[in-house]
């Protein structure tokens, strides 16, 4: 399975998680430019990086819960469901949380690196 198939299979929440990733990246670049070119050494907007990653993680977990509830409703309505179909759906339900965790991990790295750089420049 390639990346685009993984992304499409993850459902509509993948777009929201990607939006949080872009927001986090834009704020990280903005703060990096402030720190290294404008010599602005403050913690302003830094928490938004961490917030973007946290929201991405929460959206990923929410999407999994919503997907599993929908799948369970479909299983209840169907008379006979094969285990292969159930396991295939369960596998797909992990795609959005994985993407949310990836965004969260990178936002944590960006946040703590920028925070330490700012602390070192203030001292």
Automatic annotation (TrEMBL):
Keywords: Cell membrane, Membrane, Protein transport, Transmembrane, Transmembrane helix, Transport
Signal peptide: none
Residues annotated as transmembrane: 12-33, 45-72, 92-114
Domain of life of the native organism: Bacteria
UniProt family annotation: Belongs to the exbB/tolQ family.
GO-annotated cellular components: plasma membrane
Compartments in which it is found: Cell membrane; Membrane
GO terms for biological process, alphabetical: protein transport
Membrane topology: Multi-pass membrane protein
Protein name (database record): MotA/TolQ/ExbB proton channel family protein
Predominant localisation class: membrane
Ranges where the MotA/TolQ/ExbB proton channel domain occurs: 51-121
């Amino acid at each position: 399975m390639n990346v685009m198939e993984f992304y499409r299979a993850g459902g509509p929440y993948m777009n929201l998680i990607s939006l949080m990733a872009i927001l986090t990246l834009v704020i990280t670049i903005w703060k990096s430019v402030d720190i290294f070119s404008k010599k602005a050494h403050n913690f302003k907007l830094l928490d938004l990086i961490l917030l973007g990653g946290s929201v991405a993680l929460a959206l990923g977990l929410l999407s999994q819960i919503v997907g599993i509830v929908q799948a369970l409703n479909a299983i209840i309505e169907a008379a006979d469901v094969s285990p292969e179909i159930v396991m295939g759906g369960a596998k797909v339900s992990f795609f959005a949380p994985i993407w949310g965790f990836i965004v969260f991990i990178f936002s944590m790295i960006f946040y703590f690196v920028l925070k330490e750089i700012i602390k070192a420049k203030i001292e």
